[in-house]
Amino acid sequence: MKLQLNIWRQENKDSKGAIKNYKLNEVDEDMSFLEMMDILNEDLIHKGEEPVVFEHDCREGICGTCGMVVDGRPHGKEHGTTVCQLHMRKFNDGDKITIEPFRAKGFPIIRDLAVDRSAYDRIMQAGGFISQNIGSAQDANALPISKNVADLAMDAASCIGCGACAAACPNGSAMLFVSAKASQLNLLPQGQPEKAARARAMVRQMESEGFGGCSNYYECEASCPKNVSVNFIAKLNRDYLCATFKEGT
Amino acid sequence: MFKYLNHLVVSKFVMAVTGIIILLFVTGHAIGNLQIFIGKEALNAYAAFLQGLGEILWIIRIVLIIALLLHIITSIYLKLYNNGARPDKYVVTSYVKAKLNSRTMIWTGIMIAAFLGYHILHFTVGSIQPENYNQEEIYTKNAYSVGMGMNAHIANPEEHRGSVLNKVVYERHDVYKMVILGFRNPYVSGLYILGMILLGFHLSHALQSFFQTLGMAGPRFSPFIRTFSNWYGTITAIVFLIVPLAILLGFIGGNV
Ligand code: HEM
Ligand code: FES
Q: What is the per-residue pLDDT across A199-225, written as a single tens digit (0 to 9) for each?
């Protein structure tokens, strides 16, 4: 099939970017979206132009490295998939596709479609861990955890940290990510001792990285490739407010 | 005092708590208004009862004013902050779950605030249609005085069989007449109807947002409260606006 691609090109963080148009004439419907981008880049290299920079790694939806905004939707219009899992059969011959980088103050653009998501790493460093003295591991069944709680914690832990939530949020808020990463620990017994400190430290770090606050638009949930629920944001609010009431701001 | 604005989650907490205080008041107000359909006596007695609350009325007013001011200040601060967190707009925008009501909270909010100013000047202060506002109702109660000119109220007229009994005459603000005359003006009614639609729109996002902000969410509760919230906004708007609508169409107030 034939496609017209409108792609955001930007030299670096400080330069002004713009949409540039490209045409692809032979796109196979069995290609993945990123394979289509590879074909485009090969074309560009043959012509002596700069290829479009975009990030990718596993190409099977588990690493969270890929991410671009396709026609206004992070990871494209499909629900519950990353852009590397998006296939060209979801598009029609002659489609115009607009491709932009994730946009949020917390994600400065490195080049073209690649953005700096190290803010998410720093949020993890602020509280996305438990402190535990090293020793031999205890028996797994010494710590009873109900199936419901284990499942819920697993749902939170399915976040791959791709950044689509902040990219989708009109406020550029990373609350879905922060809440998933805080909840995967705060739900479990191992996470209890540092629960309050974790909720605060991670939200504070998110604030200082320049992300906005949650206005309950729920747009993040609609874009999340792992369908992480906004109910975790409610839980994070609860953990944070409890911490504030107990210990002051 | 405004240090809480440095913390996004606390700011949202302030939005939620102040918002729900106003929401509860608004709900009570909407229900109270319905007494206009019972008639002049019911509405004017209700209004006089509220006026008669004295200090309690002022406590309620002060709580509402503080809640409203905090709600407005926090919302403007949050809006500016959040806009700053998304400095570059997308070339193509597409929303799935962020519905129009959630994306327009600040605009419906500001218009509600403007409407509120008008409404208070109109019906509380009385400076917008003073000729309608300055209406007194002369009415009698089931209280009597004995003999000519005596104004002492007596509880049980039966005990004074044989004496001359006069019904005691009172005067109170004729809210019924004020409202009927006010809403007969189609421009005034139109403004109120518009204001109430905006309010309903604001509330349809606000109520469920309150629960989410305070951390009450779940796989069964959240879908329920979101649907409930839409209905709540719609019904509140309808309960408010049937009053001007009924007056405009002449269903009530024909006797004024
Ligand atoms: C009758 C008057 C009003 C009522 C009953 C009301 C109620 C509420 C409630 C319950 C919320 C939900 C809080 C939350 O997100 O948890 C809310 C949110 C909001 N209100 Fe109001 N409100 C009123 C007037 C206003 C006014 C006058 C403004 C602004 C000038 C305003 C701006 C906002 C904004 C921007 C939000 C969303 C905040 C956010 O999510 O970031 N509201 N309102
Ligand atoms: S490349 Fe790993 S999730 Fe897409």
A: 999 999 999 999 999 999 999 999 999
Q: State the burial class of residue A26 (Cβ atoms within 10 Å of its Cβ: 0-12, 13-18, 19+).
A: exposed
Q: Which of A4, A96, A171, A216 to mutate to test the interface with B (most CBs of B within 10 A)?
A: A216
The residue type found at A231 is: N
User: How far is it, in rounded angstroms, from Cα B75 to Cα B82?
Assistant: 10
Domain-embedded: residue B130: yes
In a shared domain, residues B142 and B217: no
d(Cα B202, Cα B23) in Å, to the nearest integer?
A: 10
Which residue's alpha carbon is nearest to atom 41 within ligand 1? Answer: A215
Token pair 């939707």 in the structure block, residue: A73
The answer to whether the Cβ–Cβ distance between B95 and A219 falls below 8 Å is: yes
Give the Cα separation of A41 and A46 in Å (integer).
Answer: 9
* Domain that includes residue B56, residue range: 2-134+185-248
Looking at the structure, tell me whether residues B141 and B127 fall in a common domain.
no
Place of tokens 């002049």: B40
Q: What mean pLDDT value characterizes chain A?
A: 96
Do B230 and B197 fall within a single domain? yes
Whether B90 and B101 share a structural domain: yes
List the one residue out of A166, A176, A52, A38 whose CA is nearest residue A108: A166
Nearest CB to B212 within list A72, A104, A234: A234
Say yes or no: CB of residue B67 within 6 Å of ligand 1: no
Predicted TM-score (pTM) of the model is: 0.92
Domains, in order of start, for chain A? 3-110 (3.10.20.30), 118-248 (1.10.1060.10)
